[in-house]
Amino acid sequence: MTEIKHMEIWFVTGSQNLYGAKTLKQVDEDSAKIVEGLNGSGNLPVKIVFKPVVKSSDEILDICVQASADKKCIGLITWMHTFSPAKMWIGGLKALSKPYMHLHTQFNRDLPWSEIDMDYMNLHQSAHGGREYGFINARMRKNRKVVVGHWKDKKVQEQVAIWCRTAIGWADSQGLKVARFGDNMREVAVTEGDKVEAQIKFGWQINAYSLGDFVEGVEKVTESEVDNLYKEYEKLYEVAEDCKPGEKFHENVRVQARYEIALKQFMEEGNFKAFTTNFENLVGLSQLPGLASQRLMAAGYGFGAEGDWKQAALLRIIKTMSAGMKGGSSFMEDYTYHLDPANEAVLGAHMLEICPSIAAAKPKLVVQPLGIGGKDAPARLIFESATGNAINVTLIDMGNRFRIIVNTLDVIEPLEKMPKLPVASAFWKPMPNLADGAAAWIYAGGTHHSVFTLALTPEYIETFAEYADVEFVVIDKDTKVPEFKKELKWNEVYYLLAKGL
Ligand code: MN
Prior knowledge:
Blueprint: E1 8-14, H1 21-40, E2 47-50, H2 57-69, E3 73-80, H3 90-95, E4 100-104, H4 118-123, H5 126-139, E5 145-148, H6 154-173, E6 177-181, H7 195-202, E7 205-209, H8 211-220, H9 223-236, E8 238-239, H10 250-270, E9 274-276, H11 291-298, E10 302-304, H12 309-321, E11 329-338, E12 345-349, E13 364-367, E14 379-382, E15 388-397, E16 402-411, E17 425-430, H13 434-443, E18 449-453, H14 458-468, E19 471-475, H15 481-497
Helix pairs in contact: 6-12, 6-14, 8-10, 9-10, 10-11, 13-15
This protein binds manganese (II) ion.
């Protein structure tokens, strides 16, 4: 993937030759000022690049072909300053393979009440030019984001920024390499899926590797490399007394450090951005990679336990989309309920692998037996999640299509201390409430695994799903289960008929 700092979004303004050179020069200048204003706002995560106004079918096709081929260009912002007859856009939009949005804005915010004349009206035609352009997009069944308002308005810029981040996520998704160590957990249904279809829809390259490939790397890690990494652990985490040098569990921590170093090297050498493990496939390893998986997630890699490559890839993309934003993201599992009717909530956790990017405070590094898998006691980080608005996102394979499900959450502090809980956790109230939220999730076939993020809102995921042209459903404060069930049924018909699958 191109690094975010090298990515570009092209700003393309539509018009036509009818207006004459003077007006078109003005259109060009206005567009350039908007680009300058957006870049100067500090609100956008990626550079916007001005492109000269397009006035004919050939110019539109040219810019769309160039954008599709350009490695730095991750998407287009399109704007109709004037009226751009939309048949001229058909060829270009057919050729365009990058995400795009329609910024329905106008150069001037206010009507010049005392000055307004027909020249002004003819220059500032976004109000109807944008509708002509909107029609051809709708007519061609194109998925695109529409943002309406004045370009200097902070709310509009924030919406453009959200869209930019979805384009960053989509760019990251293309060719994203996922390394699977071993296969999925035996007999488990929901972690399965069509990897060929995932590559067609999302661009993911998902391949399995023998644990032997990884173990070979583990054996090559030197003691001094482990010493150095351990020093980093001491700086970042509160290391339990029995894990310190010379104590009984110190070697268990060093084992995870070796895994971390070898895993990172494996990922870098193969250009992998996400990986899966499976506690049923640990030949050659004495522990399930716990601390090591947590550390790689914190470094920006996607992770899925029990072979769950779908959530591994999704986590990586969500981390890329939210880079630099407040709030971390982690692999997650709905683990245990608190069913007090006055305070129903979910305790989310996993056997070990929760990302410390979501931690509310300095994590503790401890070693405890796992009680499953029959291996040595693994080192892991224990912490509680930061609180606030969050979402759980999951991707499932419905057989004839992928479905992405989002549930909005209110993450709160646990009601009491949990001194014996040996894993990292998050405690949340799903929207609209536990009963309806969980029922809707279950009706939709949602996994026990998900990607938990404190950084993003459903809008990011919805737009991402539209790029891939896969089903998207959200469970939020407005969800009514009977309506939600109907939506699932309607979607079934939509994908059978409209998509011909
Ligand atoms: Mn699991």
